[in-house]
């Protein structure tokens, strides 16, 4: 019987250029996501000079800035961070759904990891929990996903 081959990324081969694209709306939550992402990247050996941070107004604007970063900077990975908090109107569904779908499409279009650290939550309390308190820091988690994908793609050959 032949052994099953397994390939996965690691956190030891994560050198590369990373762009963090940040929606400023709900900055009181998003700032903690950025801190978590940068901390994760640098703790795993990514040189701070290889991390660019781009600010946009909000989550709706993230995909366009991510696309431009992919075209111009040509990073090994992009980390999208933002927070969309449900309100009393359908605006939440349009912004969150459009942003998430576009980010997924961009990673396929550019063959480059786009880690989605955009919080889509029902309340400010949930956002705070996910930005560094009892539910962890989703910015740090997005950075970890980006690094793992950079490492994984290197294992397939060539650059991430």
From TrEMBL:
The keyword Lipid metabolism does not apply. The active site is at 91 (proton donor). It catalyses: (2S)-2-hydroxy-3-oxobutyl phosphate + 5-amino-6-(D-ribitylamino)uracil = 6,7-dimethyl-8-(1-D-ribityl)lumazine + phosphate + 2 H2O + H(+). One of its GO terms (molecular function) is 6,7-dimethyl-8-ribityllumazine synthase activity. The keyword Cell membrane does not apply. (2S)-2-hydroxy-3-oxobutyl phosphate binds at residues 88-89, 130. Pfam families: DMRL_synthase (PF00885). 5-amino-6-(D-ribitylamino)uracil binds at residues 25, 59-61, 83-85, 116. Gene3D superfamilies: Lumazine/riboflavin synthase (3.40.50.960). Catalyzes the formation of 6,7-dimethyl-8-ribityllumazine by condensation of 5-amino-6-(D-ribitylamino)uracil with 3,4-dihydroxy-2-butanone 4-phosphate. This is the penultimate step in the biosynthesis of riboflavin. NCBIfam families: lumazine-synth (TIGR00114), PRK00061.1-4 (NF000812). PANTHER family: 6,7-DIMETHYL-8-RIBITYLLUMAZINE SYNTHASE, 6,7-DIMETHYL-8-RIBITYLLUMAZINE SYNTHASE DMRL SYNTHASE LUMAZINE SYNTHASE. This is 6,7-dimethyl-8-ribityllumazine synthase. It comes from Bisbaumannia pacifica. The lineage of its organism: Bacteria, Pseudomonadati, Pseudomonadota, Gammaproteobacteria, Oceanospirillales. The gene is ribH.
């Amino acid at each position: 019987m032949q052994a099953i081959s397994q390939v996965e990324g690691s956190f030891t081969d994560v050198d590369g250029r990373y762009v963090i694209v940040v929606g400023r709306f709900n900055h009181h939550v998003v700032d903690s996501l950025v801190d978590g992402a940068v901390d994760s990247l640098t703790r795993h050996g990514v040189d701070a000079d290889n991390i660019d941070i781009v600010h946009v107004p909000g989550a709706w604007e993230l995909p366009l800035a991510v696309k431009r970063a992919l075209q111009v900077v040509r990073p090994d990975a992009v980390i999208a961070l933002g927070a969309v908090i449900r309100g009393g109107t359908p605006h939440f569904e349009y912004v969150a759904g459009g942003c998430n779908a576009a980010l997924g499409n961009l990673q396929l279009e550019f063959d480059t990891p786009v880690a989605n650290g955009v919080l889509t939550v029902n309340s400010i309390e949930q956002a705070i929990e996910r930005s560094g308190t009892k539910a962890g820091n989703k910015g740090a988690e997005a950075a970890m996903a980006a690094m793992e994908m950079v490492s994984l793609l290197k294992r397939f050959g060539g650059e991430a």
